[in-house]
Amino acid sequence: MTPAARVQASIEILDDILSGAPVEKALTGWARRSRFAGSKDRAAIRDHVFDALRCRRSFAAYGGSETGRGLMIGAVRSAEGNLADVFTGARYAPAQVTEAEKGRAFQTDAERLDIPEWLWPSFQAALKDEAEPAANSLQSRAPVHLRVNLAKADLPQAMQSLSDDGIQTHPHPACDTALEVTEGARRISHSQAYANGIVELQDAASQAVIAALELRPAMRVLDYCAGGGGKTLALAARAQDVQVFAHDANPDRMRDLPARTKRAGAEVTILTTDQVADQAPFDVVLIDVPCSGSGSWRRAPAGKWALTPDGLDTLTQTQASIMRNAAPLVAEKGVFVYATCSMLTAENDGIVDDFLSRHPSWHCGFRKTWLVSEGTDGFYSAHLTRD
Q: Are residues 216 and 94 in the same domain?
């Protein structure tokens, strides 16, 4: 496919998404209908679509409309490219740009920074001087981070194995197990290091949430909202002499965990909700609660535009409920760990402080925020203990 044909395909996919189709469904549907497209074409089109979704408001302003075509016109203008080279009107290319498709000046900072207008005041209040750098970071592609499974290799060994397969990396300062991929990211899933459980895809800040825990031999540790099991496996790898349990309210989210656990050479006990109560108490209970995902909107930009005030309220109610329900699972001298991949106060300090105000026997001895502007996803974690 020509570059212009890739842009036209991106326009069609974006129109599908703007009409309400889930992003992955729209991309997969186009690929199935377009067997002529090679892997490089699909990768380039995917990049176009995600770039446009990250910068949906600013590209719409640059492009004159919030349509697939407007977003792609805006993308070219934003990159200071030549529209005439892409919008040629030739076969398979988008039609030429007309005089009516002029860009316009940004009307607000939120539009310029690609944040929903209703959310910008809360975003600023949460991040203060870091609000604009964070919003700028969310407009760009996320770095690719790997977690080195120290049970199987150290960082130099992992880096060499990856290099042998054409994947270049360097250590990331956020965590002692983290590597940042600088070349060959699309080869990771086919690499020997991945196949042999030496590395897993995981953001460096997500790894740092686990690294901040003080794990001791014979501890019983529960990942209460395990999901796909990224943090579960990080727990198992960091302290092989602890007993790690995984639970999720929706067990289907953990469907890949057994295979991932086997590849990592780890031991994890998966529990149903009834079994969690029977196995309690635990020395550490981690609740990585469902959240807005605002710290990872580079990776899932559609979530930025899908979030509503009511949706955020529902999330905070869910977060508070999970915290209340999980607290009794913590042993008397245990540690209760609250975590999100959000940058919003309502989902972070707001939830923890409300819990503390209602449960005076609990105290918070550790809080940390990882900023998206510092090269990781945005994350938050707090450690609570009881008198």
A: no
Q: Are 230 and 296 in contact (CB under 8 A)?
A: no
Q: With 0.85 as the threshold, say if the pTM is over it.
A: yes
Q: Are 100 and 65 in contact, with CB atoms under 8 Å apart? A: no
Residues 285 and 375 in one domain: yes
Task: Establish whether 55 is a catalytic residue.
Answer: no
Which entry of 55, 175, 341, 364 is annotated as an active-site residue?
341
Domain match, 196 and 232 both? no
Task: Count the Cβ atoms, other than its own, within 10 Å of residue 5.
Answer: 20
Give the SS3 label for residue 147: strand
Would you list which residues are annotated within the binding site for S-adenosyl-L-methionine? 248, 288
> Domain check: are 260 and 380 in the same one?
yes
Residue ranges for the chain with pLDDT beneath 70: none
- Domain final residue, candidates 57, 87, 105: 105
**131 to 120, 135, 143, 371: CA distances (angstroms):** 9, 6, 19, 10
The encoded tokens of residue 237 equal: 């790898």
Does residue 297 share a domain with residue 345?
yes
Torsion of CA 112, 117, 121, 127, to 10 degrees: -50
Q: Are 292 and 307 in contact (CB under 8 A)?
A: yes
Same domain, yes or no: 54 and 151? no
Domain boundary residue among 182, 201, 220?
Answer: 201
Kindly compute the dihedral angle of the four CA atoms of residues 87, 88, 94, 100, in this order, to the nearest 10 degrees. 60
The boundaries of the domain holding residue 191 are 144-201
Q: Using one digit for the tens of pLDDT, what is the confidence trace for 21-47?
A: 999 999 999 999 999 999 999 999 999
Q: How many residues does the chain have?
A: 387
Same domain, residue pair 342 and 378: yes
Residue owning tokens 């395990």: 226
| 87-125 per-residue burial string, b: 16 or more CB within 10 A, e: under 16 | bbeeeebbeebeeebebeeeeeebbbbbbbeebbebbbe
Give the tens place of pLDDT for each residue, 163-177.
Answer: 999 999 999 999 999
- Number of compact structural domains in the chain: 3
b vs e for 283-313, b when ≥16 Cβ sit within 10 Å of the residue's Cβ?
Answer: bbbbbbbbbbbbbbbbbbbbbbeebeeeebe
- Residue written as tokens 């001298």? 333
* pLDDT value of residue 387: 84
